[in-house]
Write a structure and sequence with these properties.
One of its GO terms (molecular function) is transmembrane transporter activity. With about 290 residues, this protein is mainly α. The chain has 11 helices and 2 strands, in the order H-H-H-H-E-E-H-H-H-H-H-H-H. The protein has one domain.
Length: about 290
């Protein structure tokens, strides 16, 4: 019973990490119509940069993660303004190819800067222990990650549902031309959304590093699961992304524990079932 409790906490913390990462990808895809295949690379860079900061420049764990997140967000800003913006009129395929190429560029840059060995972001002493809850022992950091994920989810919900910027985002999901016709600087909205997406990816990489490690190829593994979450949850649905992240986190963790040989197969079967029964995702909005 205690093992199942620990696995449940592991699953929830992993689901929260997926939510933080995928919510940024979902925003970018929903508003810009860009399937950013370099999103996983921004996640990877957040982990690597946080590691370098804690090792050499910023020994304070949370400050290093925040700085790494900002650096990744600024990099995302450069990508959107300098590379993606000139391609918006060319169609989605050009953007997919561009971001796919960027993913491999970032992959090679990371190998040059940090090597190919597996790295680990060390937790501060106060976060590396365990705590007793209802007689069971749980890692403090994983419980904290669950709390952070819930806080990020609440903040994003408030931003999207209760602010003017969120209203513009929701309107942009439905009709970008209408938003632009109302005199709103749609380019600035696009850039802001991409910046938020990069910030979330970098932050997700930083807080995931002590749990999942840092290694070459981590960006592609995470991107695949983020895309699965995006498909299962449904485009344009904040609650869908949240729900799908938890479901995939539970499936990934428990299938690896009970059936490690077919864990990925189980996730894709689940995605296929969702697509067959609900083509727009669990809570996605109908198109057309």
């Amino acid at each position: 019973m205690e093992v199942l409790g620990v696995q449940l906490v592991n699953a929830l913390s992993y689901g929260m990490l997926l939510f933080i990462i995928t919510s940024g990808l979902s925003l970018v895809f929903g508003i810009l119509g860009v399937l950013n295949l370099a999103h996983g690379s921004l996640y990877m860079l957040g982990a690597y940069i946080a590691y370098s900061l804690t090792m050499k420049y910023v020994p304070v764990f949370w400050l290093a993660i925040l700085i790494a997140s900002v650096i990744v967000a600024l990099l995302a800003l450069v990508v959107e303004v300098g590379l993606l913006r000139p391609t918006y009129h060319l169609g989605h395929l050009s953007q997919v190819l561009l971001t796919f190429g960027l993913a491999y560029v970032f992959h090679d840059v990371a190998k040059v800067l940090w090597g190919t060995q597996v790295l680990s972001l060390t937790l501060p002493i106060e976060l590396s222990g365990s705590v007793q809850v209802f007689g069971q022992t749980f890692p403090i950091y994983r419980l904290l990650v669950i709390g952070i994920g819930l806080f990020v989810g609440a903040f994003l919900w408030f931003l999207q549902e209760k602010t003017r910027f969120g209203a513009i985002i929701r309107a942009g999901l439905v009709d970008k031309e209408m938003v632009s016709g109302l005199g709103i600087n749609i380019k600035l909205v696009f850039t802001s959304v991409f910046l938020i997406g990069g910030l979330l990816a970098g932050f997700g990489g930083g807080i995931a590093a002590p749990i999942l490690g840092i290694y070459p190829g981590m960006e592609f593994q995470t991107l695949i699961l983020a895309l699965v979450v995006l498909v299962i949850g449904g485009l344009g649905s904040f609650l869908g992304t949240f729900t799908a992240s938890l479901l995939v986190g539970l499936l990934e963790t428990f299938s690896k524990y009970f059936l490690p040989e077919v864990s990925l197969f189980i996730i894709f079967v689940f995605m296929a079932v969702v697509l067959v029964t609900k083509p727009n995702g669990l809570l996605g909005k109908k198109v057309g």
